[in-house]
Specification:
The complex is a heterodimer of chains A (299) and B (273). Chain A has 299 residues and is mainly alpha-helical. Chain A contains 13 helices and 3 strands. In chain B, 48% of the residues are buried. The longest helix of chain B is centred in the N-terminal third of the chain and has 32 residues, at 61-92. The chains are: A mainly alpha (299), B mainly alpha (273). Chains A and B meet through helix 1, strand 1, helix 2, helix 4 and helix 5 of A and helix 1, helix 4, strand 1, helix 5 and helix 6 of B. Strand 1 of chain A pairs parallel with strand 1 (93-94) of chain B.
Chain lengths: 299, 273
């Protein structure tokens, strides 16, 4: 284990003190700005303002179950996460498989594909407001040019298309990320299993299914885990593109929490909802990590 | 067959990645007449810089730009100092009860909280501290936000430095802190630079905390400034695009600089790139 050789065991008390002293500032910052806010949030989620002052209890949590807006926002979040994840994974995997082989201009392709995900999400929102604008947007303009549609499509302003439009924007921005992680995973696979498969006369599909896919699994799980976490909390792009509208058509859970806290100033209820989101992301990430750990044991 | 499929697919991917951004660039350079022209002029139009002057000289975007830069640089610097110290300790010392590993995982887990979960209490805390609408509030919050990332990135870089070098320095009579500064830090400088660039990008791009904590012209960052314009009724598309283009430029420069470390950074070192 190289790890052990490279570290000092802090058995004497001076080393231990030194080691702890170096960590302390970081711990203080995280305790006061990550953990304390969580505790603070729990206390406000347990308070409700009534006519005769603040009342303690779980009414903010029981209210969740019968709040149709909350349930709709949850449904939107799930649809958003699942659809975007499927597309980002399939396109990202195809791109990674293609770019893993010898091709000209690979560096250029790679650098260009990075652009969408490096942009501030607010700017991504602006870019797509411009592309999708019903009147002068490039998409409608081009569609009209080639004679596909006569009525201009309203995209983000149409209750039917709005959710799909914001999902498409997410796919545009984050497919490169999946691609990058999977490409790195592919490049870490050694040549030997492929040579063995070649000697065994495996077909292209068999090689992919029984060699590439199992060896790529850790990278796939990491990419899916990080994307899922981000998709469940999506806020920025939707805020810029639709503000959750039209009506409630693209309201996700983060937007609904934001609105509850900073438009209606119902901080207790917002805090209660945010714990549902936190619990949800925790459960899902635990499942992913469990998969990851079982697959990473050496065989 | 594969070759026939490969290049068209890649070119489509390339164009879809870049064309939307190019479209924004053209809007920022077009007169209002050209902006609304149909069919949209993609290549041929007479460019103008009026929207850039409008945004950064007549409107407050220049101020937002300065705020964004100040907040990003300050929070990155503080997170780097605090985080690097912690990372060195976690990479080098085995603490009793496996505490070093437990602490590392705990630090990483704080990064996984959805932003909106901490945004609500942080808003209330900053309100109580009378720090709403100040750059300081954003610097504090971004420092905490970047810290776990710095710890994890730097822990990986420190682990790659052989221990013998420090031991030699210690034998030569250096203190532990002296050995860290004179021997180890120079060896991890590329990693430190890459980590710094990532923090700068994240702080520069951040939106939700900035939206919640700053609402005045004097304190808001560029993304909040742009968003404020987007969601108003009468939208100045040229001004917004100009601000968007300016917001992108430093990011692209930085991203190119750290391309090599990109995968490692994005997956927090979980996948070795």
């Amino acid at each position: 284990m190289p790890k052990l050789k490279r570290s000092f065991s802090a058995h004497n008390s001076r080393d231990l003190l030194f080691a702890l002293a170096l960590i302390t500032p970081a711990l203080v910052v995280l305790l006061s700005l990550s953990i304390y806010p969580l505790i603070y949030s729990i206390t406000i989620s347990l308070q409700t303002e009534t006519a005769d002052g603040i009342k303690w209890g779980v009414s903010n949590f029981t209210r969740l179950i019968s709040d149709a807006f909350f349930l709709t926002a949850m449904a939107h979040t799930f649809i958003y996460a699942v659809v975007a994840l499927v597309f980002e994974f399939l396109i990202g995997l195809s791109l990674a498989l293609l770019l893993n082989s010898q091709i000209r201009g690979r560096t250029l392709f790679r650098a260009a594909l990075l652009v969408p995900m490096m942009l501030p999400t607010v700017v991504v929102g602006v870019v797509w407001r411009l592309m999708l604008n019903p009147n002068f947007g490039a998409i409608n303009g081009t569609l009209k040019e080639v004679g596909v549609n006569t009525e201009p499509l309203t995209w983000t302003a149409s209750p039917k298309l709005a959710l799909l439009s914001v999902i498409a924007v997410d796919v545009w921005q984050w497919t490169p990320f999946v691609f990058l992680v999977l490409l790195a995973g592919l490049q870490a696979i050694p040549q030997e299993p492929y040579e063995a498969a070649l000697i065994d006369g495996s077909s292209r599909w068999q090689t992919f299914r029984y060699v590439t896919l199992p060896l790529l699994k850790p990278a796939i799980l990491i990419a899916l885990l990080l994307r899922t976490m981000d998709l469940l909390r999506v806020f920025d792009q939707i805020f810029i593109l639709t503000e959750g509208g039209p009506g409630f058509a693209t309201e996700t859970i983060s937007l609904y929490i934001y609105r509850t806290a900073f438009r209606f100033f119902d901080f207790g209820y917002a805090a209660a909802m945010s714990f549902v989101l936190l619990a949800l992301t925790n459960v899902i990430s635990t499942i992913y990590i469990r998969f990851l750990q079982t697959k990473q044991t050496p065989t | 067959m594969k070759l026939l499929l490969k290049y068209p697919f890649l070119i489509v991917a390339l164009l879809s990645a870049l064309v939307p951004v190019y479209w924004m660039l053209t809007i920022s350079l077009k007169t209002e007449v050209d902006q609304f022209a149909t069919p949209p002029p993609w290549l041929v139009f007479s460019p103008t810089l009026e929207h850039y002057y409008d945004a950064f000289l007549s409107r407050s975007f220049g101020q937002y730009l300065i705020t964004s830069a100040v907040v990003a640089v300050a929070s990155t610097a503080i997170a780097l100092v605090i985080g690097t110290l912690a990372a060195y300790s976690l990479a080098r010392f085995r603490l009793p009860y496996g505490l070093d590993n437990k602490l590392s995982l705990w630090i990483l887990s704080t990064r996984m909280f959805p932003a909106i979960v901490t945004a609500v209490p942080l808003f209330l805390m900053m309100r109580d501290l009378r720090l709403l609408n100040t750059r300081l509030a954003l610097i504090i919050v971004y420092t905490a936000f970047n810290l776990p990332f710095v710890v994890w990135m730097m822990r990986g870089f420190f682990a790659e430095v052989p221990r013998d070098l420090e031991e030699a320095a210690l034998v030569d009579g250096d203190s532990r802190l002296g050995a860290l500064r004179r021997v180890v830090l120079p060896l991890v400088t590329p990693g430190l630079a890459a980590t710094a660039v990532f923090c700068l990008i994240v702080s520069w791009n951040e939106f939700l905390f900035a939206l919640v904590l700053t609402q005045t012209d004097a304190a808001m960052t560029l993304p909040v400034g742009i968003a404020g314009r987007v969601t108003q009724y009468e939208i100045k598309w040229g001004v917004m695009s100009a601000a968007g283009v300016v917001a992108i430029v430093p990011i692209l420069v930085f991203a190119l600089a750290v391309q090599k470390y990109l995968v490692r950074g994005l997956s927090l070192g979980a996948v070795k790139g």
